[in-house]
Amino acid sequence: MADAGAEDTRRAVDAAHRAFPAWSQKVAGERAAILERVYDGMMEQKEEMARLMTMEQGKPLAEARGEVQYAADFFKWYAEEAKRIYGDTIPASSPDKRIWVLRQPVGVTAAITPWNFPAAMITRKVAPALAAGCTMVIKPAEQTPLTAALLMEIMDQAGVPAGVVNLVTGTRAADIGDALLEDRRVRKITFTGSTEVGKLLMRKAADTVKRVSLELGGHAPFLVFEDADLVKAAKEVLASKFRNAGQTCVCTNRVYVHNSVKGEFAAILAREAEKLQVGEGLKEDVQIGPLIEPEALAKVERHVADAKEKGAKVLTGGRRVTEGGLDQGCFYAPTVLLDTTSDMLVEREETFGPVLPLHGFEEEAEAVALANDTPYGLAAYLYTRDLSRAIRVSEALEYGIVGVNDGMPSTAQAPFGGVKESGLGREGGKYGIEEFLETKYVSVGLK
Ligand code: ADP
């Protein structure tokens, strides 16, 4: 892959700037037809992209296939949504005036994306941007440029005109980022990644007052109440915790379980977690692939060691997996920790690995307070059969996404995003396209 720097980035912005007038002036139906063709192209190359993603990023093939479908769904959704960008007319205060409100594309936009969803984190941004009539420069994570490149090829084949989307790959993230942020022509930055980098980008965006969308870290709590169907709840917890080996920003980070069912629930989770197959993602039966890089493995080991030292019990896992030829990789066994406490790293920082901490509680209000005691506010989950409690608790959780009896809420038509230090703005659904539209007020005198 090319290792681009600031100059290449400026050239990409030049191209996006040149392409903007023609792209934004196309009728919506024409842009929609191109986005539909991108969807079709992704479906045709689904297997190829999934295999490439697994080889590049490590997630099991079944999950990679799932991601390609999820990623493509954004093109389908926004192809349809492109045709529904409505303005307003407002009754004026004088008979010889008219008030029109237009929705127009913000202009040239930039996207900086992470490695954990190498396709979907791009499509969730580029599909609404193109639907709105914006052009875009994309900087994918340095760990996963190949999936991004294949996506670009598919967009090219589908008829997205030259310059409308531009890929800048490279290891000098700050140089590329700075070139995008300093450029006045870039009117919006949309980012998914760490809270730390998100804050930096937001600060830098201030100099040219760019619009900013941020999808940052999370620390998802999962509340399991005493009336929950424990087998079903465990299934959702496992799905939410262990997909992508725990490397998603909406993965469960902390389970709060009522003390009366804690022992039974812990036993189910430990038994099921132990059954998960760890290994190379291309093998069909594998459910947990490697972590992305050695630093990620070191962080998981640090979190588990800290929890053990402070008194948590390891019910299963708690170690690297090296047997069966896996000694060269960053494989970590699915781990369940019992009786974790608020002072442990696993309950404070995003572990981003296959580690499930269980923390008992007595009262609903206590569980909600524990869940909200974090600077993050992306996703939270709860499991209960009590409808009033489900409503009460989902309203009290300070999170952008709440899964009630559902550990996998992400889908193209719903608004995804966080509150507090988990981010700004929403991606997906009718909300996602708003991020790429400006509101223009046209006051017309009939004199
Ligand atoms: P993660 O911890 O998930 O790797 P990062 O926030 O470090 O999250 O990375 C997300 C994206 O942000 C990647 O594309 C990365 O290259 C990019 N990035 C990292 N540092 C900077 C920076 N200083 N300026 C712009 N982009 C950056």
TrEMBL record:
Domain Aldehyde dehydrogenase residues, every copy: 2-442
GO molecular function annotation: succinate-semialdehyde dehydrogenase (NAD+) activity
GO BP annotation list: gamma-aminobutyric acid catabolic process
Pfam family, one: Aldedh
Domain of life where this protein originates: Bacteria
InterPro entries tied to this protein: Ald_DH/histidinol_DH, Ald_DH_C, Ald_DH_CS_CYS, Ald_DH_N, Aldehyde_DH_dom, Aldehyde_DH_Superfamily, Succ_semiAld_DH
Keywords: Oxidoreductase
Oxidoreductase found in the keyword field: yes
Gene3D superfamilies hit by this protein: Aldehyde Dehydrogenase, Chain A, domain 1, Aldehyde Dehydrogenase, Chain A, domain 2
Family, as annotated: Belongs to the aldehyde dehydrogenase family.
NCBIfam families reported for this sequence: SSADH (TIGR01780)
Protein name: NAD-dependent succinate-semialdehyde dehydrogenase
Record bears the keyword Oxidoreductase: yes
SUPFAM superfamilies assigned to the protein according to its UniProt record, in alphabetical order: ALDH-like
